[in-house]
Structures are given as C-alpha cells and as structure tokens.
Amino acid sequence: MTNRVDLSGASWFKSSHSNNGGQCVEVSPDFAAMVPVRDSKDPHGPALVFPATAFAAFVSGVKSGAFGTV
Fold first, then answer.
1. What is the pTM (predicted TM-score) of this model?
2. 14, 19, 55, 70: which could form a disulfide with 35 (CB 3.0–4.6 Å)?
3. DUF397 domain: from which residue to which, for each copy (predicted)?
4. What sign for the dihedral angle of Cα 30, 31, 34, 38?
5. H or E element at residue 55
6. Does 19 score more than 90 pLDDT?
C-alpha cells in the first residue's frame, strides 16, 4: 500500500553547506513526523518521505563521519 503525502504547500530548503554546483537535495521542515526530501534540480519531480527519527539518525551519522566524506 502506498500512502501519498500532499507536499504542494511544503516549504523547501537546502543546507547552508550546499555549495557544490547544484548537486543538492532539499528538505521540508513542515511535517512533524516525517521529512520529505527532493532533488533540488527537479523541484516538480518526486520526493522521498522518511520518518523524522530515521532522518535525524542519518543526519547525526553524517555529522559524526559515519559515512566518510559525503
């Protein structure tokens, strides 16, 4: 079963560290329990939606260097 989330009114932002020629993702902070993520080069394309706890764990891992240079 696929549950669709209405992202039409979502606000999006890129990391302040996104300075690599447009190879960026954007996230929306507008949802309490989930974090939508999309390709900044395709703002009208699909978005992936992650549970907020999983996305927080990913960001924590990136900050700690768990994935090497990202």
1. 0.80
2. 55
3. 10-63
4. negative
5. helix 52-64
6. no
Structural tokens at position 28: 């929306």
| 34 contacts 50 by C-beta, under 8 angstroms | yes
Type of residue at 70: V
DSSP string, 8-52: TT---B--TT--SSS--EEE----SSEEEEEETT-TTS-EEEEEH
Strands 25-27 and 47-51: unpaired
At 50, list the tokens.
């992650």
Length of the chain: 70
C-beta of residue 24 within 8 angstroms of C-beta of residue 15: yes
pLDDT, one tens digit per residue, over 22-56 is 678 899 999 999 999 999 889 899 999 999 999 99
